[in-house]
Amino acid sequence: MRSWDSLPDALLGPAGQVTEEFIKLRLREYRGAARYLNQLPYGRNSSRTDLLGVLRESRGTCSTKHALLKLLAMEQQIEIALVVGIYEMSERNTPGVGRVLAKYSLGCVPEAHCYLRYHGIRIDVTRALAEGPAEPIVHFLYEEEITPPQVGEYKVHLHQDFIRRWLAQRRNVVGYDYDEIWRIREQCIAALSA
Questions:
Q1: What angle do CA 111, 48, 132 make, to 5 degrees?
Q2: What are phi and psi of 116, to 5 degrees?
């Protein structure tokens, strides 16, 4: 997976509300907008569906940041896909979740992660890929192209359904039901925000 610097360096032309908001921030090209979002801290927004909230709140998640970039690409007529992929989140590929997982004697839990696809290349503007000890996420158990509004309820339901199927296939996760795995996963996300 690559980072924001693999996105096109296209100039932003007048197009719509999302473009206007980036231009107000003196961001005049697509790659610069992606770099800006990369530098914002990780954190849940007050609304999963108000994507401009990322700019107002100066934070975002993989879902809200990438969905906002997809909206910008749509206004600018740049061919970029928004993708949700599910992978097994562990301390190796997502530093910061290890203590939570160890507390429950788990090596991993399924996590839904949003990113972009440009010219067949996965691009993640939310992870510091060149820095730190994290292994890149290279194996996804499931991937699906989605639309920006689908980062809300649709993504949550897709993730929850996947966890139910994952548990049914995993006999080594003995003693945990869906509600417990979801609660543990929420603790992992809280650890990343801390």
A1: 45
A2: -110, 160
Alpha-carbon span 46 to 157, nearest angstrom: 19
DSSP label of 10: P
Parallel, antiparallel or unpaired: strands 81-89 and 142-146: antiparallel
Burial classification of residue 15, based on how many CB atoms lie within 10 Å of its CB (0-12 exposed, 13-18 middle, 19 or more buried): middle
pTM of the model: 0.91
Neighbours of 160 (CB within 10 A): 15
pLDDT digits (tens, 9 = 90+) for 54-90: 999 999 999 999 999 999 999 999 999 999 999 999 9
User: Can you say how many angstroms the Cα of residue 77 is from the centroid of all Cα atoms in its chain?
Assistant: 22
Q: At what angle do helices 62-76 and 30-39 cross, to 10 degrees?
A: 170
Structure tokens at 86: 């599910």
3-state secondary structure 123-147: ECCCCCCCCCCCCCCCCCCEEEEEC
Say if CB 85 and CB 143 are below 8 A apart: yes
C-alpha–C-alpha distance, residues 74 and 79, integer Å: 8
CA count, 13 A, side-chain hemisphere, 20: 3
